[in-house]
Design goal:
- 2 copies of one chain form a homodimer.
- The first copy, chain A, is an alpha/beta fold.
- The first copy, chain A, folds into 2 domains: 68 residues, Winged helix-like DNA-binding domain superfamily/Winged helix DNA-binding domain (Arc Repressor Mutant, subunit A); 207 residues, D-Maltodextrin-Binding Protein, domain 2 (3-Layer(aba) Sandwich).
- Helices cover 45% and strands 26% of the residues of chain A.
- In chain A, the strands form 2 sheets. In chain A, strands 3, 4, 5, 6, 7, 8, 9, 10, 11 and 12 form a 10-stranded mixed beta sheet that branches.
- In chain A, a hairpin with a 2-residue loop joins β1 and β2.
- In chain A, α1 crosses α2 and α1 crosses α4.
- The longest helix of chain A is centred in the N-terminal third of the chain and has 30 residues.
- The two termini of chain A are 51 Å apart.
- At the A-B interface, α4 and α5 of A face α4 and α5 of B.
- Chain B binds a DNA duplex through α3.
DNA sequence: GCTTACCATATAATTTATATATGATTTGGA
DNA sequence: TCCAAATCATATATAAATTATATGGTAAGC
């Protein structure tokens, strides 16, 4: 008993004429006769009484007709459901990632989500947070991971992780010899600082210094992590960047700031009030779940 | 998408391992791989993510799994239903028919019921009504058509038809020359009567005569219609039998009694309080329906 | 009484399903 | 680190099922 045979049966039951049913099914008459007969054999019953020139359904036939319609209905609905779901699960997720977040934060999002939705494709752009917010607004990307703080009223957001800010300095700099793996803000007072060229982050750094009634001596704002590290390595100053942006270089020493309490928060953001394709909605939910599970551990 | 493929899919979904699933399904692994893949192609989606050594269901896969189980469930239930119904519709109906009823009353029951239940077989016995009641009691038959009246408290019954009683007489008998096709009871007073040898019927005849303050002159009780007709044909008397038992014979004339108001009622009877196989129940319902439809016409 | 409509059967061709053999890749353990 | 076991995919061959063509029989309609 398979779906094809059942639909043959249903057609015959509705036409009560094998030849007409065969025409309707785009097949010739003998195979249809054969299929009906073998269905009867399989069910060990008589479905139709063949009277000379007319077919008539038996009691069993009538029961099977009702059931067959239910089954066929259910399965065609299921098929539609799957097809439309497959449709909704195909597409591209365009995501902006602020420099440095890809491997340690977003890495598992892609592999995990890809497992559930293998027909998804990702288009990932990087840039600094201000760039990414601009790209979001212009619709070039539909979601992004940026660094906190985020004061945009037009964005939804939730935190997806954080990491300590570190001070990179030349290995001959006096601070590189301090005990432990940390320096305090107090120790950085007066030091020439190289910082990421991002307004929100720079404001953060100002806050740190203000909390000890001081102010930072920022001599350079830079976009590029590598260049900033290079400058610090050459002794131009101390560069303050997130830990993951570290560069292995013997002339370079990194120290956490205030024992790791000065941290950079990463936020997952997307535009408020603009409906997203369901695939991207799913992705956002997935990322939220991932983050929740992580914070449990 | 057919049921076989769906059950393959369900097995794989439960094992999450094609090789194991194939073993469970008593088939080899490659065709199973092939079937799953072609199912994915048909639905234009990915059902499983093949990771190195493990399978994982996608979102679409999970949806299809739920639906497939519903569909398979429904169809196996339907199959059982049909099979058990086919079982209940196979069997023999043993029926007693009082002489003369077969063609004009019961004929269409058989052809009509056989159309609905082609696996049914009939075993038909005839005899006079008393014999049939005895056969019912002994279980030799499970239902019968007998002539009214029926005073058995142990039988269920409903009427299935009636027919006029007729008087057969030799064509030279004076009554055969009466106007019309009827004689009255009054005219039969004193005539030697040949009647069926059935107590209940004879009592009926006595009632007819009592109603005109007379009594019948019964000279012979006979079992056999043909013999009775033969005796009447030879001028031995007037034989009173149901109309259908007429015999074409030039020396024989038949007249209805009291304009066809003296009638023989046929009853369908079966034993009270003894459960019958569902097939026979259905037959009784069918006969009841036939009768109801006829009385409407 | 001939033609048409219709179902059944027989046989052939095609398509589909399954098995065997094999390759590639990965995991787990010696 | 390398070997063995496990596992999925592919290729090819075989078996099974499905379908079409051709044909016959039977009953209904003109």
């Amino acid at each position: 008993m398979d779906l094809k045979t059942l639909s043959y049966f249903v057609t015959v039951a509705e036409e009560l004429n094998i030849s007409h049913a065969a025409k309707k099914l785009n097949m010739s008459q003998p195979p249809l006769s054969y299929q009906i007969k073998s269905l009867e054999q399989e069910l060990n019953t008589t479905l139709f009484v063949r009277g000379k020139r007319s077919l008539q359904m038996t009691e069993s036939g009538q029961l099977l007709y009702r059931r067959a319609k239910e089954i066929l209905d259910l399965s065609s609905k299921a098929e539609e459901e799957i097809l439309s779901m497959a449709q909704g699960m195909k597409g591209t997720i365009s995501l902006g990632l602020v420099e440095g977040t890809a491997p340690h934060i977003a890495g598992e999002w892609f592999t995990g989500f890809y497992r559930m939705y293998p027909n998804v494709r990702f288009r990932i752009m990087d840039g600094n947070s201000d760039d990414l917010v601009e790209k979001l607004r212009s619709g070039l990307i539909s979601m992004a991971v940026i660094t906190s703080p985020c004061d945009h009223m037009l964005l939804n957001s939730f935190p997806v992780g954080n990491e300590p800010m570190v001070a990179f300095m030349n290995s001959e700099h006096p601070l590189s010899a301090t005990e432990g793996n940390s320096v305090s803000i107090k120790q950085l007072v007066g030091e020439p600082l190289i910082v990421p060229s991002r307004r929100a982050l720079i404001e953060d750094i100002y806050r740190w210094f203000r909390s000890i009634k001081s102010e930072p001596n920022i001599i350079c704002e830079m976009d590029n992590y590598l260049d900033a590290a290079a400058l610090a390595g050459r002794g131009m100053g101390i560069s303050i960047f997130p830990q993951t942006s570290y560069i292995s270089n013997t002339s370079l020493v990194s120290k956490q700031i205030d024992g790791g309490t000065r941290r950079l928060e990463y936020l997952f953001v997307w535009q408020k009030g603009r409906p997203l394709p369901s695939l991207e909605e799913h992705f956002i939910d997935f990322v939220r779940d991932c983050t929740a599970q992580h914070s449990l551990i």
